[in-house]
Design goal:
By secondary structure, this protein is mainly beta. The protein has one domain. The chain contains 1 helix and 11 strands. The chain has a 6-stranded antiparallel beta sheet with strand order 2-3-11-8-7-4, with no helix packed on it. It has a 5-stranded mixed beta sheet with strand order 1-10-9-6-5. Strand 9 and strand 10 form a beta hairpin. The chain starts with 6 loop residues before the first helix and ends in a 15-residue tail after the last strand. The mean pLDDT is about 80.
Length: about 150
């Protein structure tokens, strides 16, 4: 069984303290469905073909680093979840008239384990339950700027 993280424990993994206006002892729930975190979406998928799975290291995987604020989205293992894996999608070149490739990563979480998606300050922590997932960027909803990626 996965041991639940508190918000403070999860942020310690990336060297960040809980902002003063938030509750440090809140438990991070582990979810198996669609999740959103700022400019990211996590959703369950069938096992992808032709990806190179690698263990999520104890130091985590930096999925997005915000250049403006330094707020970063990190993928981490839950406590004792050494079987959590990730893979980068095979990138297809994007031409100016095509929609951007929004895929950032795939995540595979074995039964009885969990992953964590940690945003250093603004969006808290998402617990990722057992299953296989795709992590995507979001893009602007405005038809005039549909090519522009959403930035938090």
């Amino acid at each position: 069984m996965v041991v639940a993280f508190s918000y403070a424990q999860a942020l310690e993994l990336v060297g960040t303290a809980v902002p003063g206006h938030l509750q440090a002892d809140l438990e991070v729930p582990s979810l198996r469905g669609v999740q959103a975190q700022g400019d990211l979406l996590v959703f369950p998928i069938a096992e992808p073909d032709d990806v190179a799975w690698a263990p999520v290291p104890a130091t985590g995987v930096q999925l997005i680093r915000s250049e403006a604020t330094g707020n970063t989205h990190w993928l981490h293992q839950d406590q004792g979840s050494t079987g959590v894996q990730w893979a980068e999608p095979v990138r297809v070149p994007v031409f100016e008239d095509e929609e951007p490739d929004l895929r950032l990563a795939y995540v595979r979480v074995p039964e009885g384990q969990g992953g964590l998606l940690i945003h250093t300050e603004e969006h808290g922590v998402n617990g990722i339950g057992p299953g296989t997932y795709q992590v995507n960027r979001k893009r602007e909803a405005d038809p005039e700027s549909v090519q522009r990626l959403l930035a938090d």
